[in-house]
Amino acid sequence: DFKLGGAGYTGNGMDAFSIMTFNPIYVSLAARPEELEFRPSSAFLVQGTYQLGDSWVSLGYGKTMLERLDTDGDPSTPDSPPLLRSQTGISAGLYHRIGQVVLGLDYFNAHYGFDARLVTNPAVPGTTIGEENEQTVHTLNGGVTLEW
Question: Which residues pair with 7 in a beta bridge?
């Protein structure tokens, strides 16, 4: 009735968002092409389900950690671009089977953490203020799946 699984990786230049030719998520921010390096990253994922008759619940937690490189520059330089440092996902789902139809309701919390940085203070020209950079996205989905 209970299932548990996990996965992980570590390496250079690996990430789910590597769809662009130059992407600072997996390539350094070097100014000169010959200095470009793949960004080291590591990640893990744990998922589990528990079945109760024709219904089941699923839970998952995963995190990707991305390292800085020397060619990224100093994050304390005013108005430097924010660099993604972590991606965290938490999921939960409830499902119920009625014959060949599965009713589902699932929730996903995505959290992105970036380097803290200094930005120009718009209220006082010539000064900077610290800025924490993070983003959280909550997604709730419901649906019906027909199996055949």
Answer: 45
